[in-house]
Specification:
Layout lengths: L5 E6 L5 H9 L4 E7 L3 H5 L4 E3 L2 H7 L4 E4 L6 H8 L6 E5 L6 H14 L3 E4 L6 H12 L5 E8 L24 H17 L4 E7 L10 E7 L5 E7 L14 E7 L2 E5 L5 E5 L6 E4 L11 H15 L7 H20 L3 E2 L2
Parallel strand pairs: 1-2, 1-4, 2-3, 4-5, 5-6, 7-10
Antiparallel strand pairs: 7-11, 8-9, 8-15, 9-10, 11-12, 12-13, 13-14
Amino acid sequence: MKQAPLKIGCVGAGYFAQFHYDAWARIPGAIPIASVDTDIKKARATGLTSYNNIDDMLAVENLDIIDIITPPETHLEMIKSALTSKVSAIICQKPFCNSLDDAKIAVELASKHGTPLIVHENFRFQPWYRTIKHRINKGDIGTVLQASFRLRPGDGQGENAYLDRQPYFQKMPRFLVHETAVHWVDVFRYLMGNPDHVYADLRKLNEAIAGEDAGYFILGFDGGRRAMFDGNRLLDHSAENHRNTLGECLIEGTSGTLELDGFGNVTLRKFGKTRKKTVLAAQPYQGFGGDCVHALQSHVIAGLLNRSVFENEAADYLKVLEIEEALYRSNDTGSRIILG
């Protein structure tokens, strides 16, 4: 007997939500049926049955998945509401919840209800990082000793920075790490495991915004392995679309180096050699960042239909939030922070 499509209700219809709605419409086994936004016009613009609050949607619709695409300060209450219905899973965008304490409450509540709660942390699903992980697992670069990423989106200069796309960026008291670099905290965990200590040096360059927009951090791993994030939102990198990869990455091992450029090419150079071999060629992708939204949401559908393990379940993602808190504490104290 053929499985009926899983019914999706989306909460939020702001800028980034467009990528969620587009992805759901392209995923076999899923059907988006409802949209919620406090601005009902935005909800109606999705073409789905529209509501201006989640409780009204839940009172009418029989849903399988609730996809929360709202700002972090709303997440805990949205999750509480979602858990009053008998959904098969809840997906929640990052930054996940407004604080680590709120995130822990959300995880505990979801666990009590037996409902999978997955954080929509999609960068690890970008095709270049999947390729890099595959090549690491194959042993193409030997033992990974260090990784580095240079964030250079070039969108942070002047008093109008971010206003055309996500204006709330200007008012976030914690910005570079909390909103952006947290992606690479998760990517580095995906590629190298959990760090045991961190060090951060953050700064604000554009006085028009509230939070930090440049800085460095180092994640320390066992065996002396390191990952470094070098971020500056005011500067750019060589790319036609600066939001494609958002920067450039090196993964260096005892037998070679994997390199990601701003176009989405991944190359492999063997140790002691000069020639680079392309292992993933740049290509046009539908959607955002290598269609990573589609990849993550497809992963959730596959997990429900096949009863397979989910990546980025909220209980595991708490580690990312703990690392984030440690990075800000390191910056405030000027010291290396040992992780528990």
